[in-house]
Amino acid sequence: MPSVVGTPFDFHRLTAIGARIDNADEQLRFGKGYDHNWVLNESVGPLRINATIYEPIIGRVLEVWSDQPGLEFYTGNELDGTIVDKGGWPTPRTVLSAWNVSTFQILPTILAFRPQS
């Protein structure tokens, strides 16, 4: 598994979600943003914090807790500001994010093609 250190996928330190979303990285260009599963350094095990999301304007904090080895992150990549929310605010890309803790989505495929002994 390649390291994310120093790439647009490196969120080891507090970083604005949209700060590197327009980076020239091939995966970000094809997906128009983040829609990726991060492999966490822990295996399935005890409940722990996988991510902390901080919104600085009013100080909201979201902690993502899980006992799973993966974290899926999506940034509303097809939003372009033409849709407005219930409050009348436009919804451009990066105005929202979705977080999903999981095992790895490709795991059933990998297991299905494992050589039989």
How many domains would you count in the coordinates?
1
Shape: globular
Going across the major beta sheet, what is the strand order? 1-4-7
Measured as a percent range, the helix fraction is 10-25%
Q: Poorly predicted ranges (pLDDT <50, ≥5 residues)? A: none
Average predicted confidence as pLDDT: 84
List the secondary-structure elements in sequence, H or E: HEEEEEEEH
Rg on CA atoms, Å: 16 Å
How much of the polypeptide forms β-strand, as a percent range? Answer: 25-35%
Count of DSSP E strands?
7
N- to C-terminal distance: 25 Å
Task: State the major sheet.
Answer: 3 strands, antiparallel
By secondary-structure content and strand pairing, the structural class works out as mainly beta
Query: Count of helices?
Result: 2
